[in-house]
Every structure is written in C-alpha cells, then in structure tokens.
Amino acid sequence: MRYTTIGRRGHSSFLRPRGAAVISLAAVGLVLAACSSGGSSPESSSGAPAPSSSGAAPTSEAPAEPVELRVQSGNGGSDALLAGYEELNAAFEAANPGVTINFEVKSFTELVDTLSLQLSGDDVPDVTQVNQGYGSLGQLVTSGLVAPMDDIASANDWAGRQGEALITLNGRFSPDGKNMGAGELYGVSATGAWVGLYINKEIAKSLGYDAAPTSLEEMEEMLAKAKEAGIPGLMFGASDGGEQIWLMANLLMGYTSPQTVTDVINGVNEQLPPEMLQAAETMQKWAEAGYLTDGWAALDSTEVLGMFSEGEGLFALNGSWNVFQSDTPETFGLVPFPLASASDIGAIASGDLPWSVPTNAKNPDLAKKYIDFITSPEASEIWIKAGQVPATISGNEQALVEANGLVGVSADAILQWVNIMTNGTPIGFPDWATPTWYDTIAQSSTALMAGEITPQEFVDALQADYGAFTAERKAS
Fold first, then answer.
1. What confidence tens digit (pLDDT) does each residue in 249-290 have?
2. Which terminus of the chain has a smaller tally of CB atoms within 10 A, N or C?
3. How far apart (Å, rounded) are the C-alpha atoms in residues 259 and 265?
4. Whether the Cβ atoms of residue 83 and residue 386 lie closer than 8 Å to each other
5. 307 — phi, psi (to 5°)?
C-alpha cells in the first residue's frame, strides 16, 4: 500500500464535514485533528473486516499480474479519518492478493477545484471521492466523467446497508445531471455526518429543564431563560458561513417538514416555500433578542464550539464531526434540532465525500469492489474504532461504542446517527441546491441577523439565486 499526499491548500469555503475533529477540555482550547464523529480512538478487540458470503468483504484469486489500484481521497488533514482508511486498505490488499493500493490524499479544495479537469484527461484514478450537489457531482455526471454503480449496489444491497434515503441523497442523479436525488447511482459514502444541537445539561438543569427541547417553542423559551440568567443561549459563529445555513435549514424544517427541505435542495420547485420567510424572521429575532454569542458575526463555528466545550453557553449548533472530549462527558449531549412534531426525527445528515468510479478508470470492476468493501457492515467496526460515524448501519453500533470506550457526545454522534437513519429522515446540506447558494445564504443571512436587511429582502436574495438556477436547469 502506498500513500501520496498532494497539495493541501486548506479548507474550502463550503463548511462541510471532512473527517473528525477533536475538541479537548483538558487542552488549552480547541484542538482540531481530523473531522467526523470521534474524539477518542481507543483500541478495539475487533480487527479488519472478515470475508463474508454477502460480498461485503470479498476475497478473490490472485490476479495473473500485479494490479495497482489508484484511490484518490479528498480528506487531507483529517487524520482520524485517514487512519480508518489505512486500516481498511491493508485489509483489502490482504483479501485481494496481488492488488496494491496507491492511496493519494488531497485537500477538499484541491480535489474539488481540479477534479473535472483531471477526469477529463489521462491522469485518472480508479476510485475518487467527489463532492455532492448540482455544482459538483451533477457536473461530473453531465460531462460523463463518472460511471453508475447500480449493478454492484443492487447485487450487494447497498440500500439495505445504508437506507435508500441516504443512498439517494449522496449519489443519485439523472444521467444528464439535471435531477439530483433521482436516477442512477454515481456515488456512495463510507462515513456519515450530521448537524445537531449540542446541549449543556448542567446549565439546562439550572434553568429548570431536565432534557433537550422537543419543539421550537420550548427551545425559544429556554433561550429566553438563559438570556435572563446572563447565559449565552446559542453559541453561534458566522464568519465562516456554515452555521447560518444550518440554522436556516433547521428552522425551515421545523416550520414545515424534512421532506420540504429535501425538495428545496433537489430543486423540485422554482419557488422557495413561503415558510422561508418565517425562518428568516426567527433568525433575525433571535439575534436581536441577544440569544446568540456576543460578537457572533466575527467568530467562526470552531471557536464558539471550543467556548461551549469549556462550559460557556446553553446550546451550540454544530456537526457530529466536531465532537469533543470532556472530563465530565455526562455534562454534554448531542441531539437532533427540534422539529414541529416531537415524534418526527430528521436532521441535516449526509455522508462524507462520496466515492465514485471515473468513466475512464483502468480497473473499474476492482474499483467497485473496493467501494463495496469500505462501505460494508464489517467495515463499521474499523470506523467506530477510529471514532468515526459509519454511514452503513451494522446493527452492532451500541456494542461497538461501548467496546471502544466512546462516551458523551462521541457516543451520541454515532448512536443518534443510527436513530436518524433508522427512524427518521436525513436531508442534505442546503448549499447543494445551486453552485452559488452557499455564498448567497451566508452573506445574506449575516446581513439579516445584523439587522441590515429585512426578512423579506433575505428571502428575495435567496430566491433570485435559487429560482434562476432551478429554472435554467429544468429548461435545459
């Protein structure tokens, strides 16, 4: 197995899960290591995935000649995540004598900025990670640069492993790339990530609450009581753009339904739902009421979660890839953002960068076999051992979490993911809806929450971007 690190140019402006970050209360502040779900990586009694009759961890005869499988990752800088891939790669080589994996690591920015050009030329890997959304995977599909994988997905029941909702969310497109979430399968994720509500249980108890809020009304009530007590209600940082987008989507989902937000992301209609105005009004109201961190506009999401991990604030809105270690893990919890109905379960919950097979890959069958291997139920043991959230549901998550000593929000990240995937509705990241919507939402929402524009002006700015792209996509 050979590893190559290529051009780490830093993180993209697209604030998305990229591996596992660790936030330690014992350290001076926030310690970022690598993104997804786990802060700790305790040893596990489990080893590499064992071969199974289902084809999840296949074995094969040695090829007539040695084969190098080029695998390209966009998880540069995500050390805990890459450690999981290193162990899985070794297991795949052992199960497939004669195969050597050349594992090339790029940063997310380097991968996304160069992938279309790379796959159009002669320097084509056998397997590569891609980015979701119309502006990334959709463009690759439109250009015919990635191949569908429905054959192996059907043969080995990938939908049964991860659920059709997640499979569709991460990798289905019409062959012309114009309809996301429908058609053939061009990508599948190995690990999962979701955005939820971190809660300081001790502060909540001091305010008279024994549990996380089960409705938006109760959450707003808790925010008001925190304000009265001189406690920051929601630790919030807007300088990197992601938290405003997450808050907007969660409020819209709370006022409508997870399916409504999914339809927005997929561009089912050219007009945004009318409840978007209600979400905008709430965003502005919370900011003007002083429910957010002081100086929120100049802080980023990593800074405010570090402050939260040190005991400041009632809530934080952040990703499962940013879980932290604590000397008092029982103090903190991670749960889905409250919805309109307490019985509903849903969250921004997708996979990490999906894995795809380029159309011009030299070893396409072996490439599909590799993707099948790293997404197998057996591979979940290695992902949890590395402190990650496996995209595939094995059914053994509780036992594996306990065996690997994961507690607090590290355990919540994995077990709540299972609950969302098994009993709820995962939705994508809102910025997937158009190639430019991330910047439009981030900039307009900052102005909205600072009182510089009205809620209606915010909705109009989003609609102008969204409507134009969606109409053009549908027309073509």
1. 999 999 999 999 999 999 999 999 999 999 999 999 999 999
2. C
3. 10
4. yes
5. -65, -40
- What are the beta bridge partners of residue 319? 195
Residue 299: which of 212, 350, 259, 241 has the closest Cα? Answer: 241
The Cα 175–Cα 148 span in angstroms is 9
Tokens of 147: 């191949």
Regarding beta strands 184-185 and 172-173, do their DSSP bridges make them parallel or antiparallel, or are they unpaired?
antiparallel
Q: Identify the CA nearest to 235 among candidates 251, 250, 247.
A: 247
CA distance 405 to 241: 34
CA distance 349 to 247: 14
The mean per-residue pLDDT over the stretch 352-373 comes to 97
pLDDT 10s digits, 58-70: 444 555 589 999 9
CA separation, residue 216 to residues 273, 303, 317, 336 (Å): 19, 25, 14, 12
Domains of the chain: 2-192+350-427 (3.40.190.10), 195-346+431-475 (3.40.190.10)
Q: CA dist 69 to 125, 153, 335, 370, 371, Å?
A: 8, 20, 39, 9, 12
Nearest residue to 44 (alpha-carbon basis) of 451, 382, 437, 413: 382
pTM for this model (two decimals): 0.85
The dihedral sign for the CA sequence 468, 465, 146, 195: negative
Task: Round the CA-based radius of gyration of the chain to a whole number and report it.
Answer: 22
Beta strand residue intervals within 254-382, DSSP E? 315-319, 324-325, 332-335, 346-351, 355-358
